[in-house]
Amino acid sequence: MVGLIAAFGGGILSSLLLQDPKRAPIALLESNSIGIIWTACWWLVNYLPGGLVAKLLSLRPCKLAAKACLNILRAGLMAARVDLAVELFPGVVAAPLLLGSIAGTGGRFSIDPILAAIGELPGPHEISVPTFAARSGFVGAAGYWLAVHVYRALSAAEGKALIMTAFLAHGALSDLVGHPLDWTYPLARVAHALARVPMPDALAGAAGRAAASVDSRPTPSESKKDK
């Protein structure tokens, strides 16, 4: 179940916020085949004797193909959520940006609290310190909304193709060069500088340093012993 939330968390969370099970259903509840296919794939990757599927997925061509499929699904879901938000909440700017961003971020917003609860979260929550996942989700949703629904420069199919191409190109290039190629970070730095709001990672670093300095202070009993 945790793996399912990690994979489909963006769709699940945005579906719950939209509250329209007919037009934005939760994938697992929409069809038996989705649950069966997911369970079969999970077992094959993790528990197939000999680990053949896991070994195949560790090969670079398979990794690239899997990431490409993920980015195609991500772009499609993001565009669908923006379209539906515009339809259900006409004139509300926050609706397509929020729902599209959640859909485009994947399962990070949903899985981070679970990982934190079991002590497996390697860093801050994505929602408090956004990384490439959240930033690219927001940029993709905002770009699609502006191009398709605000300025009407592109059709829905063209807008989806544009963000899909951008995600596919980034995924392939980052794997080929072995570097994250986070093109959203400079954009975030500029936006925060113009707004005169510190970057979340800077705030997290400052909080961590403050906590470390507090922890390093001697307790009253230790001070008395030193004297």
Automatic annotation (TrEMBL):
* Taxonomic superkingdom: Eukaryota
Topology with respect to the bilayer: Multi-pass membrane protein
Q: Where does the UniProt annotation locate this protein?
A: Endomembrane system
Single Gene Ontology MF annotation: identical protein binding
Q: Which GO terms describe its cellular component?
A: endomembrane system; membrane
- Provide the primary localization: membrane
Keyword field: Ion channel, Ion transport, Membrane, Potassium, Potassium channel, Potassium transport, Transmembrane, Transmembrane helix, Transport
Q: What family is reported?
A: Belongs to the TMEM38 family.
Name assigned to this protein: Uncharacterized protein
Natural source organism: Elliptochloris bilobata
